[in-house]
Amino acid sequence: MIKKKCGVILSLVLVLGLGVFTAGCGNTQAAREANNPDSLTIAVVTKDMYLDTAVKKFEELHPGVSVEVKEYTSSTSEKGEGVRAADPGDIEKYVTTMNTQLMSGQGSDIILLNDLPYQTYADKNLLVDLGGLMQSDQSFDSGKYYQNIFKALEYKDKLYGLPVNIGIDMIAADRTLLDNSQVQIDDSNWDWNDFVKTAEKVINDNQNGGTQGMYALAGMDEKRLIATLVKENYDNLVDPEKKTANFTGQEFLDLLNLSKYLIDHKLVNTDTAQTNIMDMASRGKLVFNFTSLRGFWDLQVAKAIFSEGVQLLKPPGNVFFSTDSMYGISSKSAHQELAWEFLKFLVSDDMMTQGGMPINKSVLPQIAQNFTQAIQKNGGRMRIKDDGIPCQSITLQPPTQEDVDYMENLLSQANVYIGTDQKIISIVQEETAAFLTGQKTAEATAQLIQDRVSTYLNE
After folding, report:
1. How many CB atoms sit inside 10 A of residue 185's CB?
2. Where is the signal peptide (predicted)?
């Protein structure tokens, strides 16, 4: 959950300009757009400033070309009111609409693939292989990009989604608490048992045997806890290419038991309504905090939250990454060439220096410089807020060269994409509720999930 928080926080600050577009599109309009070689349509759940800016600049660079972004949201907030986080209902509506449009050969030229079963679309030849376009386009320099990220996103040796930004999952730890307990963590070789043992030792050392008021994790209810653990291990539990699931294996049973142990032993503060993570961290009451690094903002926030010192750890396993902005091109699009030009522009030097965690290798120093200038301009004082958590002020510091090197190293190691299917996460959350209250065994719960997910994958 916390890994999502910093992404939300980043969005709250960086994404401000939003408008409302009409979601629907009739056949007459679709036909008119298809006949106009200089028009382009993009389907998203909600727009963001990055996309807005790209559309504006692209149209300026290509006079006569028009790009329309179609939102599928019920929100009515106006530009300047702040960010509209994607509502679960909007996501469901988006998935349903895209399914219908793509299967009927309609829809936008470019499609935001997040939350969509894009592997299924690829199997039905509804998406263009972007890897093939990269290879055939002499103006596209693949060497400028992190190939490990493209490789991790491949499906059946083809690339159907181009991420504009990524987030790398990390666990932030209170360095002072670890030092006080003389605990050293080697995140190249640790597992979830090490995570629990470390948390228990730190809590016991600092609470004189008691645990009240100090937690391994906080602001994470039962649903978010199991969803987070499943996402961190998703690549071992679901194989979308083979359409198989592995929820009855020992790995998932261990995750179930880990979740219950953390909750039963009150190692997780599940009161999301009253928990102030930043306050707890500043008082030395929080050992770990899941976070997703989506740029220097998140890195500096993680440092500010654990004001006495933070150690960023790789979660057990590989270096995982996710993205909330991955685009693909419909194979039914009559404007595939123009769509590819737009996608190339999205990941160009010009656009990627705006911020975030870029897939373009050359722009990170410039992003750091821009971020530094922004902090120097306003003093770095920020007020941040997350779902149900009171607003709190923090002071950010400019990134150092060490920070730039750290981020570049992380980007080069990101080799596993967490492309979770929200439907599968929902199934897991539904079926684990009875287990966490002791009404079902781990084995029975795992079998129910295995059966439902297997059916879903093969629909």
Report:
1. 16
2. 1-25
DSSP at 391 = E
Per-residue CA distances from 23 to 63, 71, 95, 231, 308 (Å): 26, 5, 13, 30, 48
Q: For the chain, give me the number of helices (H) and strands (E)?
A: 20, 16
Vertex 387: Cα angle to 386 and 392 (nearest 5)? 35
Per DSSP bridges, beta strands 162-163 and 326-329 are antiparallel
Q: How far apart are CA 305 and CA 312, in angstroms?
A: 12
* Helix/strand/coil (H/E/C) assignment for every residue in 365-389: HHHHHHHHHHHHHHCCEEEEEECCE
**What percent of the chain is predicted at pLDDT more than 70?**
85
pLDDT value for 385: 63
Pairwise CA distance, residues 313 & 32, whole Å:
52
Is-contact 351 49, C-beta < 8 A? Answer: no
Helices (H), 154-242: 175-180, 192-207, 222-232, 234-237
Residue carrying the six token digits 């050293």:
184
What is the DSSP-derived secondary structure letter of residue 144? G
Residue 124 burial (CB count, 10 A): 11
- Residue positions counted in the chain: 459
- How far is Cα 187 from Cα 189, in angstroms, rounded to an integer? 5
- CA dihedral (239, 242, 248, 250) positive or negative: negative
Q: How far is CA 308 from the centre of its chain?
A: 27
pTM for this entry: 0.79
Contacts of 409 (CB under 8 A, 6+ apart): none
